[in-house]
Amino acid sequence: MSAIIIDGKKIASEVKGELEGRIGKLREKNIFPYLVAILVGENPASVQYVNMKAKACTKIGIKSRVISFPEKLGEGELLELIEELNADKLVHGILVQLPLPNQIDQLKINLAVDVSKDVDGFHPENLGRLLLGKPNFIPATPLGILELLSRSGNSPVGKHTIVLGRGDLVGRPFSVLVSLKDKRANSTVTLCHSATRNLNHFTKQADILICAMGKARMITGDMIMPGAVIIDAGTSAVNDPSTEKGIRIVGDVDFDSVSEVAGFITPVPGGVGPMTIAMLLSNTVKAAEQINGICND
Questions:
Q1: Looking at residues 131-149, what average pLDDT do you find?
Q2: How confident is the model at residue 242 (pLDDT cuts 50, 70, 90)?
Q3: Any residues with CB less than 8 A from the CB of 177 and at least 6 apart, and which?
């Protein structure tokens, strides 16, 4: 068996195309969706990711701005900026790039962002709404994974979904999202993590396996059920002398061995990553619509 590759770039492009229509309707009303990203420090991955987000915004007509600060920025200064952006009626989305340096309390920052502009979906109110089954803004990566499944013909409804990783950004919120009584979710969910015993016992039961543990190539072909759908949300840098930088970005899945057993699989890169950005853009457009009292059917 050779797995069908779920092309995240192609599906993200479809999502962006749909957003362009909604953005056009907003512009007709003199509403210009506007996302502000805040970057603290010079973490190379964070810098690259924020720049990719800004570039993606420009391509589909979303106004964007990146505000960068040195690593030593004080928490009070960041909170003051967020307060200013909350009050700015032209700003629809506020994104604080993670991780933040140790002197800044991430929970305090998440709480400070206006819940109506929380396009990352990390405000406790938005996470609470998700838990209650009444979501508004859903974190971009979990939402992107759900879109990947839905648009690739791999509906989770009635399936057994195994989620590897209980992180706040992917594993835990996705496990809640895919369990909701919803026409695109409604899955039976098992959440595994670093303390799970006999991991193979669970992974072999998965109709859909979501890998978000951040451990390079930990999932191999002998660990999965034939025909399973594999979504790889992990990213790790491994040494590779054959590349210009001497490293290669890989996922949690050993792609070569797993693709011989799975039915569908996402690559790394080119799978979940593009969808994360696409869903951030989607949340920004949604925020612009909601703030201006526009209902998108």
A1: 98
A2: confident
A3: 130, 135, 138, 142, 143, 146, 185
pTM value?
Answer: 0.95
Please state the rounded mean pLDDT for residues 158-178: 97
In the set 114, 118, 120, 232, the catalytic residue is 120
Helix (H, G, I), strand (E, B) or coil at 6: coil
pLDDT surpasses 60 at 297: no
Separation CA 270–CA 12 (nearest Å): 10
Radius of gyration of the CA atoms of the chain, in A: 19
* Among 191, 200, 203, 206, residue whose Cα is nearest residue 156: 206
Whether 16 is a known active-site residue: answer no
Marked catalytic residue, from 53, 117, 159, 286 = 53
Q: What is the bridge-based pairing of β-strands 63-69 and 34-40?
A: parallel
Model confidence over 56-77: pLDDT tens digits?
999 999 999 999 999 999 999 9
Q: Is 240 a catalytic residue?
A: no
Binned at pLDDT 50, 70 and 90, residue 248 comes out as confident
All domains of the chain in start order, with CATH: 29-114 (3.40.50.10860), 140-273 (3.40.50.720)
pLDDT in tens, 171-189: 999 999 999 999 999 999 9
CA angle 36, 128, 142 (to 5 degrees): 60
Q: What distance in Å separates the CA atoms of residue 62 and residue 23, rounded to the nearest whole number?
A: 8
DSSP 162-231: EEE---TTTHHHHHHHTTSSSTT---EEEEE-TT-SSHHHHHTT-SEEEE-S--TT-B-GGGS-TT-EEE
Active site residue 97: yes
What pairs with residue 264 in β-bridges? 4, 229
Annotated catalytic residue, options 97, 114, 118, 207: 97
